[in-house]
Amino acid sequence: MRLPIYALICSFFLRLLQQTHASNKVNIIFLMTDDMGRTMLYPYSKNVIPLPNLRRFADMSTTLKLNTVYSVCSPARQSFLTGVDHPNVLTFDQNFFQIGYDSLFKILCDAKDNCYSGMFGKIMHEYKEDLALQLFYKMNQTSVPRYPIVDGNNDCNGRDIGCVVASSKLSDTAVTAQGIKFLKQAKQKLDAGTIQRFVLGIGYHKPHIDMASYVARIKPYQLSMPNLTRPITSLNGQPEIDFYHSTDIESMTLNGKKIISGNIQNVDQITQSTPTTLKIRALYFNSLYAVDIGVGKVLDTVASLGLDQNTYIVFLADHGFNLGDGNAWGKNDLSQPVIEVPGYITGPGINKGVIADSEISLIDFVPTFIDLLHGTGASKNFVHPSGVKLRGVSFVPALVNDKSEINKYVFFRHAACQPNTQLRTNPCTTDDVIGSCDRPYMTYMGHGVTTTQNNRTCTYNAWWPFNENRIGCSLPSWKNQPASLVGKYGKQSPQINLTDSWTDFSVPPYQPKLLCHTFNAKYGSLDNPNFNNLALHPSNEDSALIDEMQQAIINRYRSSNRAG
Fold it and tell me: Within 13 Å and on the Cβ side, how many CA atoms surround 544?
Protein backbone atom coordinates (compact mmCIF):
# COMPACT_ATOMS: atom_id res chain seq x y z
CA MET A 1 0.00 0.00 0.00
CA ARG A 2 2.92 2.32 0.70
CA LEU A 3 4.27 2.24 -2.85
CA PRO A 4 1.12 3.56 -4.55
CA ILE A 5 0.84 6.39 -1.97
CA TYR A 6 4.49 7.27 -2.50
CA ALA A 7 4.01 7.20 -6.25
CA LEU A 8 0.94 9.42 -5.93
CA ILE A 9 2.86 11.96 -3.86
CA CYS A 10 5.71 11.94 -6.36
CA SER A 11 3.31 12.47 -9.26
CA PHE A 12 1.74 15.48 -7.52
CA PHE A 13 5.21 16.82 -6.75
CA LEU A 14 6.37 16.43 -10.34
CA ARG A 15 3.16 17.94 -11.65
CA LEU A 16 3.63 21.00 -9.42
CA LEU A 17 7.16 21.51 -10.68
CA GLN A 18 6.25 20.79 -14.30
CA GLN A 19 3.39 23.30 -14.17
CA THR A 20 5.70 26.07 -13.07
CA HIS A 21 8.85 25.10 -14.96
CA ALA A 22 7.11 24.42 -18.26
CA SER A 23 5.76 27.92 -18.69
CA ASN A 24 7.75 29.89 -16.11
CA LYS A 25 4.91 32.39 -16.30
CA VAL A 26 3.78 32.24 -12.70
CA ASN A 27 3.50 35.45 -10.72
CA ILE A 28 4.63 35.90 -7.11
CA ILE A 29 3.28 38.24 -4.41
CA PHE A 30 4.93 38.63 -1.00
CA LEU A 31 2.90 40.28 1.76
CA MET A 32 5.07 41.08 4.76
CA THR A 33 4.10 42.47 8.15
CA ASP A 34 6.17 43.89 10.99
CA ASP A 35 6.44 42.61 14.59
CA MET A 36 3.62 40.08 14.15
CA GLY A 37 3.78 36.79 16.03
CA ARG A 38 1.36 33.87 16.05
CA THR A 39 -0.36 34.89 19.28
CA MET A 40 -4.15 34.51 18.87
CA LEU A 41 -3.81 34.05 15.10
CA TYR A 42 -5.68 31.43 13.07
CA PRO A 43 -4.89 28.53 12.70
CA TYR A 44 -2.07 28.72 15.22
CA SER A 45 -4.35 29.35 18.19
CA LYS A 46 -7.64 28.03 19.52
CA ASN A 47 -8.65 31.49 20.79
CA VAL A 48 -8.23 33.67 17.74
CA ILE A 49 -8.69 37.34 16.98
CA PRO A 50 -11.40 37.35 14.27
CA LEU A 51 -9.43 38.58 11.26
CA PRO A 52 -11.63 37.49 8.33
CA ASN A 53 -9.23 38.06 5.46
CA LEU A 54 -6.24 36.37 7.08
CA ARG A 55 -8.49 33.46 7.98
CA ARG A 56 -9.66 33.26 4.36
CA PHE A 57 -6.03 33.36 3.26
CA ALA A 58 -5.09 30.56 5.66
CA ASP A 59 -7.95 28.36 4.46
CA MET A 60 -6.76 28.64 0.86
CA SER A 61 -3.11 28.06 1.81
CA THR A 62 -0.59 25.72 3.33
CA THR A 63 0.17 27.17 6.77
CA LEU A 64 3.84 27.04 7.72
CA LYS A 65 5.46 26.54 11.11
CA LEU A 66 7.65 29.49 10.25
CA ASN A 67 10.57 30.74 12.32
CA THR A 68 12.50 33.98 12.11
CA VAL A 69 16.29 34.02 11.84
CA TYR A 70 16.85 37.08 14.01
CA SER A 71 14.89 38.87 16.74
CA VAL A 72 15.08 42.30 15.18
CA CYS A 73 13.84 43.73 11.88
CA SER A 74 16.82 44.29 9.61
CA PRO A 75 18.77 41.01 9.88
CA ALA A 76 15.48 39.05 9.77
CA ARG A 77 14.45 40.83 6.57
CA GLN A 78 17.91 40.45 5.09
CA SER A 79 17.75 36.68 5.62
CA PHE A 80 14.33 36.48 3.96
CA LEU A 81 15.43 38.59 0.99
CA THR A 82 18.75 36.81 0.42
CA GLY A 83 18.41 33.21 1.62
CA VAL A 84 21.56 33.76 3.70
CA ASP A 85 21.92 34.05 7.47
CA HIS A 86 25.24 35.73 8.00
CA PRO A 87 27.14 34.08 10.89
CA ASN A 88 28.34 37.36 12.37
CA VAL A 89 25.42 39.75 11.92
CA LEU A 90 24.87 41.71 15.11
CA THR A 91 21.99 44.04 14.31
CA PHE A 92 20.64 46.64 11.89
CA ASP A 93 22.31 47.16 8.49
CA GLN A 94 25.59 45.37 9.03
CA ASN A 95 25.37 42.85 6.21
CA PHE A 96 22.98 44.33 3.68
CA PHE A 97 25.58 46.38 1.90
CA GLN A 98 27.59 43.27 1.01
CA ILE A 99 24.74 40.99 -0.05
CA GLY A 100 22.20 43.44 -1.43
CA TYR A 101 18.78 44.11 -0.01
CA ASP A 102 16.55 43.28 -2.96
CA SER A 103 18.24 39.99 -3.89
CA LEU A 104 14.94 38.10 -3.75
CA PHE A 105 13.44 40.30 -6.46
CA LYS A 106 16.55 40.22 -8.64
CA ILE A 107 16.82 36.43 -8.36
CA LEU A 108 13.14 35.66 -8.97
CA CYS A 109 12.47 38.40 -11.52
CA ASP A 110 15.31 38.35 -14.00
CA ALA A 111 14.88 40.94 -16.75
CA LYS A 112 15.81 38.43 -19.44
CA ASP A 113 12.58 36.48 -18.88
CA ASN A 114 10.46 39.62 -19.30
CA CYS A 115 9.58 39.87 -15.61
CA TYR A 116 8.16 43.01 -14.00
CA SER A 117 8.76 43.72 -10.30
CA GLY A 118 7.75 46.23 -7.67
CA MET A 119 8.32 46.73 -3.94
CA PHE A 120 6.07 48.94 -1.81
CA GLY A 121 6.07 49.71 1.90
CA LYS A 122 8.34 48.06 4.43
CA ILE A 123 9.92 45.02 2.82
CA MET A 124 13.36 46.45 3.42
CA HIS A 125 14.35 48.29 6.57
CA GLU A 126 15.24 51.75 5.32
CA TYR A 127 16.79 54.78 6.92
CA LYS A 128 16.58 58.41 5.91
CA GLU A 129 20.31 58.43 5.21
CA ASP A 130 19.88 55.57 2.75
CA LEU A 131 17.15 57.39 0.88
CA ALA A 132 18.90 60.75 0.88
CA LEU A 133 21.99 59.24 -0.74
CA GLN A 134 20.03 56.72 -2.81
CA LEU A 135 22.28 54.01 -1.42
CA PHE A 136 19.63 51.42 -2.19
CA TYR A 137 20.03 52.01 -5.91
CA LYS A 138 23.83 52.21 -5.71
CA MET A 139 24.04 48.98 -3.77
CA ASN A 140 21.77 46.92 -5.96
CA GLN A 141 21.75 48.61 -9.35
CA THR A 142 18.08 47.79 -9.40
CA SER A 143 15.18 49.03 -11.45
CA VAL A 144 12.60 47.69 -9.00
CA PRO A 145 9.97 50.45 -8.67
CA ARG A 146 9.79 51.87 -5.16
CA TYR A 147 7.00 53.72 -3.45
CA PRO A 148 8.49 56.60 -1.40
CA ILE A 149 8.79 55.45 2.18
CA VAL A 150 5.88 56.24 4.49
CA ASP A 151 6.71 56.43 8.19
CA GLY A 152 4.17 53.97 9.52
CA ASN A 153 5.40 54.54 13.07
CA ASN A 154 3.85 58.01 13.14
CA ASP A 155 0.22 57.36 12.26
CA CYS A 156 -0.64 58.61 15.75
CA ASN A 157 1.20 61.60 17.21
CA GLY A 158 4.64 60.03 17.09
CA ARG A 159 4.64 59.35 20.84
CA ASP A 160 1.42 57.57 21.81
CA ILE A 161 0.90 53.86 21.60
CA GLY A 162 -2.33 53.31 19.74
CA CYS A 163 -4.84 55.60 18.14
CA VAL A 164 -7.94 55.09 16.03
CA VAL A 165 -7.88 56.91 12.71
CA ALA A 166 -9.84 56.66 9.50
CA SER A 167 -8.66 53.84 7.27
CA SER A 168 -7.78 56.41 4.61
CA LYS A 169 -5.31 58.01 7.02
CA LEU A 170 -3.34 54.85 7.79
CA SER A 171 0.06 54.58 6.09
CA ASP A 172 -0.60 50.92 5.30
CA THR A 173 -3.69 51.92 3.33
CA ALA A 174 -1.47 53.96 1.02
CA VAL A 175 0.91 51.03 0.65
CA THR A 176 -1.97 48.70 -0.29
CA ALA A 177 -3.21 51.23 -2.86
CA GLN A 178 0.22 51.34 -4.51
CA GLY A 179 0.36 47.55 -4.59
CA ILE A 180 -3.07 47.34 -6.22
CA LYS A 181 -2.07 49.98 -8.76
CA PHE A 182 0.96 47.84 -9.61
CA LEU A 183 -1.24 44.74 -10.03
CA LYS A 184 -3.50 46.53 -12.50
CA GLN A 185 -0.51 47.79 -14.47
CA ALA A 186 1.01 44.31 -14.46
CA LYS A 187 -2.24 42.83 -15.76
CA GLN A 188 -2.24 45.31 -18.66
CA LYS A 189 1.36 44.42 -19.48
CA LEU A 190 0.56 40.69 -19.34
CA ASP A 191 -2.41 41.14 -21.68
CA ALA A 192 -0.30 43.23 -24.06
CA GLY A 193 2.46 40.61 -24.04
CA THR A 194 5.15 43.05 -22.93
CA ILE A 195 5.90 40.95 -19.81
CA GLN A 196 5.54 37.26 -19.04
CA ARG A 197 5.08 37.51 -15.29
CA PHE A 198 5.59 39.75 -12.25
CA VAL A 199 6.97 39.67 -8.70
CA LEU A 200 5.43 42.07 -6.17
CA GLY A 201 6.32 42.87 -2.55
CA ILE A 202 3.96 44.73 -0.21
CA GLY A 203 5.28 45.50 3.28
CA TYR A 204 2.92 46.56 6.07
CA HIS A 205 4.17 48.62 9.03
CA LYS A 206 1.63 47.28 11.47
CA PRO A 207 1.33 45.95 14.11
CA HIS A 208 4.65 47.64 14.91
CA ILE A 209 4.51 50.58 17.27
CA ASP A 210 2.64 52.91 17.17
CA MET A 211 -0.07 50.22 16.87
CA ALA A 212 -2.46 52.55 15.07
CA SER A 213 -5.69 51.09 13.72
CA TYR A 214 -8.96 52.04 12.12
CA VAL A 215 -11.02 50.08 14.66
CA ALA A 216 -11.28 49.65 18.42
CA ARG A 217 -13.05 46.32 18.13
CA ILE A 218 -11.03 44.44 20.73
CA LYS A 219 -11.64 45.78 24.24
CA PRO A 220 -9.19 45.27 27.11
CA TYR A 221 -11.82 43.56 29.27
CA GLN A 222 -12.25 40.89 26.58
CA LEU A 223 -8.64 39.77 26.97
CA SER A 224 -6.88 37.72 29.60
CA MET A 225 -3.50 38.42 31.14
CA PRO A 226 -0.54 36.64 29.51
CA ASN A 227 1.39 33.92 31.25
CA LEU A 228 3.98 35.90 33.21
CA THR A 229 6.17 32.93 34.11
CA ARG A 230 9.61 32.92 32.57
CA PRO A 231 11.57 29.73 32.07
CA ILE A 232 13.71 29.45 35.19
CA THR A 233 17.40 30.21 34.73
CA SER A 234 20.26 29.71 37.12
CA LEU A 235 22.14 33.01 37.18
CA ASN A 236 25.11 32.00 39.31
CA GLY A 237 26.26 35.59 39.28
CA GLN A 238 25.91 35.86 35.51
CA PRO A 239 23.81 38.53 33.79
CA GLU A 240 20.30 37.63 32.83
CA ILE A 241 20.63 38.29 29.14
CA ASP A 242 17.99 36.03 27.65
CA PHE A 243 15.28 38.65 28.18
CA TYR A 244 16.33 42.06 27.00
CA HIS A 245 15.32 45.08 29.06
CA SER A 246 15.00 47.58 26.25
CA THR A 247 11.95 47.85 24.03
CA ASP A 248 10.27 50.42 21.81
CA ILE A 249 7.48 50.62 24.41
CA GLU A 250 9.79 52.43 26.85
CA SER A 251 9.77 55.62 24.81
CA MET A 252 6.00 55.66 24.26
CA THR A 253 3.07 57.17 26.08
CA LEU A 254 -0.37 55.74 26.71
CA ASN A 255 -3.19 58.28 26.76
CA GLY A 256 -0.57 61.02 26.99
CA LYS A 257 1.24 59.51 30.00
CA LYS A 258 4.61 57.78 29.96
CA ILE A 259 4.27 54.01 30.26
CA ILE A 260 7.58 53.66 32.10
CA SER A 261 7.02 56.09 34.94
CA GLY A 262 5.88 56.38 38.53
CA ASN A 263 5.62 52.98 40.19
CA ILE A 264 6.65 51.25 36.96
CA GLN A 265 10.41 51.77 36.72
CA ASN A 266 11.39 49.34 33.95
CA VAL A 267 9.84 47.39 31.14
CA ASP A 268 9.70 44.14 33.09
CA GLN A 269 7.27 45.71 35.55
CA ILE A 270 4.63 46.74 33.00
CA THR A 271 2.83 43.45 33.58
CA GLN A 272 2.52 44.28 37.27
CA SER A 273 -0.15 46.74 36.15
CA THR A 274 -3.05 44.69 34.79
CA PRO A 275 -4.89 47.66 33.19
CA THR A 276 -1.73 48.78 31.34
CA THR A 277 -1.00 45.27 30.11
CA LEU A 278 -4.52 44.67 28.82
CA LYS A 279 -4.70 48.09 27.14
CA ILE A 280 -1.47 47.52 25.24
CA ARG A 281 -2.52 44.02 24.23
CA ALA A 282 -5.86 45.35 22.95
CA LEU A 283 -4.10 48.08 20.95
CA TYR A 284 -1.80 45.50 19.38
CA PHE A 285 -4.62 43.17 18.34
CA ASN A 286 -6.69 46.05 16.96
CA SER A 287 -3.73 47.15 14.83
CA LEU A 288 -3.84 43.72 13.15
CA TYR A 289 -7.03 44.82 11.39
CA ALA A 290 -4.99 47.41 9.46
CA VAL A 291 -3.05 44.48 7.99
CA ASP A 292 -6.13 42.31 7.53
CA ILE A 293 -8.02 44.87 5.45
CA GLY A 294 -4.99 45.34 3.17
CA VAL A 295 -4.56 41.60 2.67
CA GLY A 296 -8.26 41.31 1.81
CA LYS A 297 -8.02 44.03 -0.84
CA VAL A 298 -5.01 42.35 -2.44
CA LEU A 299 -6.71 38.94 -2.52
CA ASP A 300 -9.85 40.46 -4.03
CA THR A 301 -7.85 42.33 -6.67
CA VAL A 302 -5.90 39.23 -7.68
CA ALA A 303 -9.16 37.30 -8.10
CA SER A 304 -10.96 40.08 -9.99
CA LEU A 305 -8.07 40.40 -12.45
CA GLY A 306 -8.12 36.66 -13.10
CA LEU A 307 -4.59 36.19 -11.73
CA ASP A 308 -5.42 33.76 -8.93
CA GLN A 309 -4.85 30.57 -10.96
CA ASN A 310 -1.22 31.32 -11.78
CA THR A 311 -0.03 33.43 -8.86
CA TYR A 312 1.77 32.39 -5.69
CA ILE A 313 0.86 34.58 -2.72
CA VAL A 314 2.86 34.52 0.52
CA PHE A 315 2.06 36.13 3.86
CA LEU A 316 4.76 36.29 6.53
CA ALA A 317 6.32 38.43 9.29
CA ASP A 318 9.91 39.39 10.05
CA HIS A 319 9.67 38.29 13.71
CA GLY A 320 7.18 38.19 16.56
CA PHE A 321 6.50 40.32 19.60
CA ASN A 322 6.17 39.71 23.34
CA LEU A 323 2.96 41.15 24.80
CA GLY A 324 3.81 40.52 28.43
CA ASP A 325 4.52 36.86 27.72
CA GLY A 326 7.06 35.68 30.26
CA ASN A 327 6.90 39.19 31.77
CA ALA A 328 8.66 40.53 28.67
CA TRP A 329 7.70 43.13 26.06
CA GLY A 330 8.73 43.66 22.46
CA LYS A 331 11.32 41.60 20.61
CA ASN A 332 15.05 41.37 21.35
CA ASP A 333 15.07 37.92 22.94
CA LEU A 334 14.95 34.24 21.98
CA SER A 335 11.48 33.38 23.29
CA GLN A 336 8.76 31.54 21.36
CA PRO A 337 6.49 34.59 20.86
CA VAL A 338 9.39 36.33 19.09
CA ILE A 339 10.87 33.40 17.16
CA GLU A 340 7.63 31.85 15.84
CA VAL A 341 5.94 33.87 13.10
CA PRO A 342 2.93 33.33 10.84
CA GLY A 343 3.43 32.04 7.31
CA TYR A 344 0.83 31.22 4.63
CA ILE A 345 1.49 30.28 1.02
CA THR A 346 -1.07 29.64 -1.71
CA GLY A 347 -0.76 29.08 -5.44
CA PRO A 348 -0.96 26.52 -8.24
CA GLY A 349 -0.58 22.95 -6.98
CA ILE A 350 -0.23 23.85 -3.29
CA ASN A 351 -2.32 22.08 -0.65
CA LYS A 352 -5.02 24.15 0.99
CA GLY A 353 -6.17 24.34 4.59
CA VAL A 354 -3.33 22.28 6.09
CA ILE A 355 -0.43 22.97 8.47
CA ALA A 356 2.90 21.67 7.22
CA ASP A 357 4.58 19.58 9.92
CA SER A 358 8.16 20.65 9.27
CA GLU A 359 9.79 23.67 10.87
CA ILE A 360 10.54 26.31 8.21
CA SER A 361 12.91 29.30 8.31
CA LEU A 362 12.77 32.73 6.67
CA ILE A 363 15.93 31.84 4.74
CA ASP A 364 14.06 28.99 3.02
CA PHE A 365 11.93 31.21 0.75
CA VAL A 366 14.62 32.07 -1.81
CA PRO A 367 15.58 28.41 -2.52
CA THR A 368 11.91 27.38 -2.49
CA PHE A 369 10.94 29.83 -5.20
CA ILE A 370 14.04 29.06 -7.24
CA ASP A 371 12.83 25.45 -7.29
CA LEU A 372 9.25 26.45 -8.08
CA LEU A 373 10.42 28.55 -11.03
CA HIS A 374 13.27 26.44 -12.39
CA GLY A 375 12.58 22.86 -11.34
CA THR A 376 13.42 20.58 -8.47
CA GLY A 377 16.97 20.80 -7.18
CA ALA A 378 17.73 24.06 -8.97
CA SER A 379 18.46 25.79 -5.66
CA LYS A 380 21.01 23.24 -4.41
CA ASN A 381 23.82 24.55 -6.57
CA PHE A 382 22.60 28.13 -6.77
CA VAL A 383 25.14 30.77 -5.79
CA HIS A 384 23.93 34.16 -4.65
CA PRO A 385 24.92 37.10 -6.91
CA SER A 386 27.24 38.25 -4.11
CA GLY A 387 29.13 34.94 -4.38
CA VAL A 388 27.67 33.50 -1.15
CA LYS A 389 26.04 30.07 -1.24
CA LEU A 390 22.43 29.90 -0.09
CA ARG A 391 21.99 28.61 3.46
CA GLY A 392 18.24 27.99 3.21
CA VAL A 393 16.50 24.79 2.11
CA SER A 394 13.67 24.46 -0.40
CA PHE A 395 10.38 23.49 1.26
CA VAL A 396 8.60 22.62 -2.00
CA PRO A 397 8.01 19.00 -0.79
CA ALA A 398 5.99 20.35 2.17
CA LEU A 399 3.69 22.19 -0.24
CA VAL A 400 2.71 18.86 -1.81
CA ASN A 401 2.89 16.61 1.26
CA ASP A 402 2.41 18.46 4.54
CA LYS A 403 4.05 15.54 6.43
CA SER A 404 7.42 16.05 4.71
CA GLU A 405 10.37 16.91 6.93
CA ILE A 406 12.33 19.80 5.47
CA ASN A 407 14.74 20.93 8.19
CA LYS A 408 16.23 18.81 10.93
CA TYR A 409 17.30 22.07 12.57
CA VAL A 410 16.10 25.66 12.27
CA PHE A 411 18.58 28.26 13.56
CA PHE A 412 18.00 31.72 14.98
CA ARG A 413 19.90 34.21 17.12
CA HIS A 414 20.11 37.66 18.64
CA ALA A 415 22.83 39.84 20.14
CA ALA A 416 22.62 41.56 23.51
CA CYS A 417 24.86 44.12 25.17
CA GLN A 418 24.54 43.90 28.93
CA PRO A 419 26.67 44.83 31.98
CA ASN A 420 28.47 41.70 33.14
CA THR A 421 27.43 42.49 36.74
CA GLN A 422 23.74 42.84 35.95
CA LEU A 423 21.26 40.71 37.87
CA ARG A 424 17.46 40.67 38.01
CA THR A 425 17.64 42.81 41.15
CA ASN A 426 19.49 45.49 39.21
CA PRO A 427 17.71 45.83 35.87
CA CYS A 428 19.27 47.76 33.03
CA THR A 429 17.65 50.93 31.75
CA THR A 430 17.66 52.20 28.19
CA ASP A 431 20.66 54.40 29.02
CA ASP A 432 22.54 51.38 30.32
CA VAL A 433 21.92 49.47 27.11
CA ILE A 434 23.26 52.18 24.82
CA GLY A 435 26.48 52.38 26.76
CA SER A 436 26.29 55.33 29.15
CA CYS A 437 26.35 53.56 32.53
CA ASP A 438 29.65 53.17 34.32
CA ARG A 439 29.78 49.39 34.65
CA PRO A 440 31.90 46.91 32.66
CA TYR A 441 30.26 45.47 29.57
CA MET A 442 30.22 42.22 27.70
CA THR A 443 28.50 41.49 24.42
CA TYR A 444 26.73 38.17 23.89
CA MET A 445 25.35 36.45 20.83
CA GLY A 446 22.36 34.31 21.67
CA HIS A 447 22.13 31.26 19.41
CA GLY A 448 19.08 29.02 19.21
CA VAL A 449 17.92 25.97 17.33
CA THR A 450 14.52 24.31 16.95
CA THR A 451 13.98 20.65 16.11
CA THR A 452 11.41 17.90 16.55
CA GLN A 453 11.92 14.75 18.59
CA ASN A 454 9.41 12.07 19.59
CA ASN A 455 6.42 14.20 18.63
CA ARG A 456 7.83 17.18 20.55
CA THR A 457 8.87 20.56 19.22
CA CYS A 458 12.01 21.48 21.15
CA THR A 459 13.92 24.76 21.25
CA TYR A 460 17.41 25.08 22.70
CA ASN A 461 19.11 28.44 23.15
CA ALA A 462 22.19 29.72 24.92
CA TRP A 463 24.47 32.76 24.93
CA TRP A 464 28.18 32.94 24.17
CA PRO A 465 30.54 35.95 24.37
CA PHE A 466 30.67 37.81 21.09
CA ASN A 467 33.56 39.93 19.85
CA GLU A 468 31.82 42.77 18.08
CA ASN A 469 35.01 44.76 17.45
CA ARG A 470 33.32 47.97 18.60
CA ILE A 471 33.68 50.15 21.65
CA GLY A 472 31.34 49.18 24.48
CA CYS A 473 27.77 48.50 23.58
CA SER A 474 27.01 51.63 21.61
CA LEU A 475 24.43 51.14 18.93
CA PRO A 476 25.49 51.30 15.27
CA SER A 477 25.42 54.78 13.80
CA TRP A 478 26.68 56.56 10.72
CA LYS A 479 29.45 58.14 12.78
CA ASN A 480 31.08 55.41 14.86
CA GLN A 481 31.66 52.63 12.32
CA PRO A 482 34.66 51.58 10.21
CA ALA A 483 34.98 53.38 6.89
CA SER A 484 35.32 50.13 4.95
CA LEU A 485 32.74 51.04 2.33
CA VAL A 486 33.39 54.76 1.95
CA GLY A 487 35.07 54.33 -1.41
CA LYS A 488 32.42 51.94 -2.68
CA TYR A 489 29.30 53.87 -1.79
CA GLY A 490 30.55 57.37 -1.08
CA LYS A 491 29.53 57.30 2.58
CA GLN A 492 30.50 55.36 5.64
CA SER A 493 28.31 52.33 6.27
CA PRO A 494 26.74 51.73 9.71
CA GLN A 495 28.23 48.28 10.19
CA ILE A 496 30.71 46.36 12.25
CA ASN A 497 33.77 44.60 10.91
CA LEU A 498 32.18 41.29 9.99
CA THR A 499 35.49 39.53 9.41
CA ASP A 500 36.86 40.13 12.89
CA SER A 501 33.58 39.70 14.80
CA TRP A 502 32.95 36.23 16.10
CA THR A 503 31.24 34.11 18.75
CA ASP A 504 33.55 32.50 21.28
CA PHE A 505 32.40 28.88 21.34
CA SER A 506 35.52 27.86 23.27
CA VAL A 507 33.84 28.75 26.57
CA PRO A 508 30.73 27.16 28.12
CA PRO A 509 27.50 28.90 27.09
CA TYR A 510 25.57 31.14 29.46
CA GLN A 511 22.05 30.21 30.53
CA PRO A 512 21.36 27.22 28.27
CA LYS A 513 17.67 26.39 28.02
CA LEU A 514 15.75 23.50 26.50
CA LEU A 515 12.02 24.14 26.08
CA CYS A 516 9.78 21.49 24.56
CA HIS A 517 6.08 21.06 23.93
CA THR A 518 3.96 18.42 22.22
CA PHE A 519 2.86 19.45 18.77
CA ASN A 520 -0.90 19.84 18.43
CA ALA A 521 -1.86 18.41 15.04
CA LYS A 522 -4.69 20.93 14.63
CA TYR A 523 -2.91 24.06 15.82
CA GLY A 524 0.62 25.17 15.05
CA SER A 525 1.43 26.28 18.60
CA LEU A 526 0.00 26.48 22.10
CA ASP A 527 -2.11 29.42 23.28
CA ASN A 528 -0.58 30.14 26.66
CA PRO A 529 2.51 27.95 27.04
CA ASN A 530 4.04 27.39 30.44
CA PHE A 531 7.41 25.96 29.51
CA ASN A 532 9.86 24.59 32.02
CA ASN A 533 13.58 24.93 31.40
CA LEU A 534 14.44 21.30 30.84
CA ALA A 535 18.15 22.15 30.80
CA LEU A 536 18.14 22.67 34.58
CA HIS A 537 17.16 19.11 35.45
CA PRO A 538 17.41 17.15 32.22
CA SER A 539 16.41 13.55 31.81
CA ASN A 540 18.84 11.28 29.99
CA GLU A 541 16.86 11.86 26.81
CA ASP A 542 16.89 15.64 27.23
CA SER A 543 20.56 15.70 28.16
CA ALA A 544 21.44 13.93 24.93
CA LEU A 545 19.20 16.32 23.00
CA ILE A 546 20.89 19.36 24.59
CA ASP A 547 24.31 18.07 23.52
CA GLU A 548 23.05 17.35 20.02
CA MET A 549 21.44 20.76 19.55
CA GLN A 550 24.35 22.69 21.04
CA GLN A 551 26.73 20.88 18.71
CA ALA A 552 24.45 21.69 15.77
CA ILE A 553 24.77 25.41 16.60
CA ILE A 554 28.55 25.19 16.91
CA ASN A 555 28.89 23.21 13.68
CA ARG A 556 26.78 25.72 11.78
CA TYR A 557 28.57 28.86 12.92
CA ARG A 558 32.09 27.86 13.92
CA SER A 559 33.17 26.90 10.39
CA SER A 560 32.03 30.25 9.01
CA ASN A 561 32.78 32.21 12.15
CA ARG A 562 35.35 34.47 10.55
CA ALA A 563 33.66 34.64 7.16
CA GLY A 564 33.08 38.08 5.78
Answer: 3
